[in-house]
């Protein structure tokens, strides 16, 4: 009876416009009756044996087992204890000596031990045997193959969807592929469902890379090279509110190497002393297997020279020096991602800029750290800032992660100095949201930033207080508390703001976890400084 029902379905497809048209069957000559009969026979076998197949699936895998003899000799080169072929192990250079552990201030590994997480299985983009791409393998796909049976595929670029085995001809092999995948289904990929054309979030569905995250870029006095600043920061627990909140809410530390990066004293020359002190800093603060971003803060004379050099040859001298620092840093931490603060500069991304290019340095970097600092308090700068970040992404063609550095302060228009804080509303409007809105498109899709983070320095409190050296520690703690509360409030706004730009899951609308792939790998290996 099931076979008769199947034949009836075929007959209805013959006579119904929704199925196969009469024209199709007129095209079938006597030679094609043979494969049609084969199809009917195979379909009847599928229907008659469907219950048995279903019963086998319902029993599950518990009813089947494979006996493994533990005494059986393993394949040559296989180590049973580890399950790895020793010939496939890749050697790594271990840093010389035992890494130093300066009490209190090193940036620690939050996880403790690095364990490879199992990769989640990826969904296929297409369904095997689905000729007409309706995400189900059924009679419609069979009829499509019969309609082109024994025909050679047209020359490219014309498509040949019935050639499933890529033999350049539609034949019995293609028919068997459909039969073997009978009744298989899959969910349509993102963008194929009705309504998916509507933008599910601020960035849309064509965004590449992971969701943006918030990082802690604040320059606490713990990181200072001045012993007295470090001591006082430890004793008064500088910034403890912000650091505790960040730790609980997944805002990880972005390590900064201040004072010149690899050029430790920022004198435009790499000396043995520079390299040794840089290596010491890494050993004190960065685990050898850390694979996140590290910002090299090398300004000094090179920084101002970039503004006035008049030829590409002159700029290339500067670029070569910067790249030399990158190469040395990578030798010491080969898994980390190094880049320089503030590059490209805003002047270098402006549409009127016609000076020497620094693109060679940008694409050579593992990451870049452009800033969005702005002193135009009270005015709207969102378009200018967004254009700056979009140009940064374009200059690296979306291939280098972009970590945006934002400042909550602006300079006093009369006496100078970053003495004043933007309002939270203006900071979000003019810096944070434009950075998250920024995107650059190529043939692959939209590229956007990897992270946003506040950069601020507690030393400003000292620099802009006329009577600092006469203050008691209680007075200093009160001043630091004001700054700490501002930082915490801003991060409390930034974290949910970044979550708005997480791509929507098409199944249930849940947000993806931020930092879920290589662009943000390693961020969770760092915590804020130990108090």
Structure commentary:
With 531 residues, this protein is α/β, with parallel strands linked by helices. It has 2 domains: 2-54 and 122-180, no CATH class; 213-525, TIM Barrel (Alpha-Beta Barrel). It has 16 helices and 11 strands. Strand 3 (256-257), helix 8 (272-285) and strand 4 form a beta-alpha-beta unit. Helix 13 (382-395) packs parallel to helix 14. The longest helix has 30 residues, at 30-59. The model is unreliable at 1-28, 49-119, 190-205 and 505-531 (pLDDT under 50).
Beta strand %: 5-15%
| Continuous helix count | 16
Give the overall average pLDDT: 76
Unreliable stretches (pLDDT < 50, length at least 5) are 1-28, 49-119, 190-205, 505-531
Largest sheet: 4 strands, parallel
In short:
The protein has helices spanning about 1-15, 20-25, 30-60, 140-145, 170-180, 225-235, 240-250, 270-285, 300-310, 310-330, 345-350, 360-365, 380-395, 425-435, 460-465, 475-500; strands spanning about 215, 250-255, 255, 295, 335-340, 405, 410, 420, 440, 445, 450-455. The longest helix is centred in the first third of the chain and has 30 residues, at about 30-60.
């Amino acid at each position: 009876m099931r076979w008769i029902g199947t034949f009836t379905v075929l007959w209805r497809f013959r006579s119904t416009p929704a199925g196969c048209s009469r024209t199709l069957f007129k095209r079938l000559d006597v030679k094609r009756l043979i494969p049609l009969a084969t199809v009917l026979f195979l379909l009847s076998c599928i229907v008659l044996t469907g219950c048995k197949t279903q019963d086998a699936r319902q029993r599950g895998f518990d009813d089947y087992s494979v006996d493994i003899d533990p005494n059986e000799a393993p394949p040559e080169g296989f180590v049973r204890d580890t399950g790895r072929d020793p010939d496939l192990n890749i050697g790594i250079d271990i840093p010389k000596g035992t890494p130093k552990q300066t009490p209190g201030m090193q940036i620690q590994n939050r996880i403790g031990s690095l364990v490879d997480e199992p990769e989640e299985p990826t969904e296929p983009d297409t369904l095997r045997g689905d000729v007409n791409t309706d995400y189900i393998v059924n009679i419609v796909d069979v009829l499509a193959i019969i309609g082109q049976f024994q025909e050679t595929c047209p020359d490219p670029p014309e498509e040949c969807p019935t050639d499933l085995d890529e033999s350049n001809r539609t034949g019995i092999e293609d028919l068997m592929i459909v039969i073997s995948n009978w009744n298989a289904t899959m969910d349509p990929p993102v963008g194929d469902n009705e309504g998916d054309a509507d933008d599910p979030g601020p960035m849309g569905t064509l965004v590449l890379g992971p969701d943006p995250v918030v990082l802690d870029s604040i320059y606490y006095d713990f990181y200072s090279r001045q012993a007295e600043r470090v001591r006082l920061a430890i004793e008064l627990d500088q910034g403890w509110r912000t650091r505790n909140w960040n730790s609980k809410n997944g805002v990880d530390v972005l390590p900064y190497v201040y004072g010149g990066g690899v050029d430790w004293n920022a004198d435009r020359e790499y000396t043995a002393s520079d390299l040794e002190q840089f290596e010491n800093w890494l050993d004190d603060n960065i685990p050898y297997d850390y694979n996140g971003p590290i910002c090299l803060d090398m300004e000094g004379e090179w920084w101002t020279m970039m503004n006035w050099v008049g030829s590409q040859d002159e700029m290339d001298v500067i670029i070569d020096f910067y790249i030399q620092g990158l190469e040395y840093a990578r030798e010491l931490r080969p898994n980390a991602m190094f880049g320089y603060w503030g590059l490209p500069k805003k002047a270098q991304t402006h549409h009127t800029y016609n000076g020497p290019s620094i693109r060679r340095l940008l694409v050579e970097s593992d990451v870049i750290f452009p800033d969005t600092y702005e002193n135009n308090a009270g005015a709207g700068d969102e378009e200018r800032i967004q254009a700056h970040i979009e140009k940064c992404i374009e200059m690296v063609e979306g291939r280098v992660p972009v970590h945006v550095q934002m400042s909550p302060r602006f300079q006093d228009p009369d006496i100078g100095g970053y003495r004043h804080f933007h309002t939270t509303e203006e900071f979000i409007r003019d810096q944070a949201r434009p950075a998250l809105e920024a995107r650059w498109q190529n043939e692959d899709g939209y590229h956007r930033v990897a992270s946003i983070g506040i950069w601020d320095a507690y030393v400003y409190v000292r620099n802009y207080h006329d009577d600092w050296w006469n203050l008691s520690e209680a007075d200093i703690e009160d001043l630091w508390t004001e700054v700490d509360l501002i930082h915490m409030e801003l991060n409390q706004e930034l974290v949910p703001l970044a979550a708005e730009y997480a791509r929507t899951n098409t199944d249930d609308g849940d947000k993806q976890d931020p930092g879920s792939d290589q662009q943000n790998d390693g961020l969770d290996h760092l915590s804020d400084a130990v108090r």
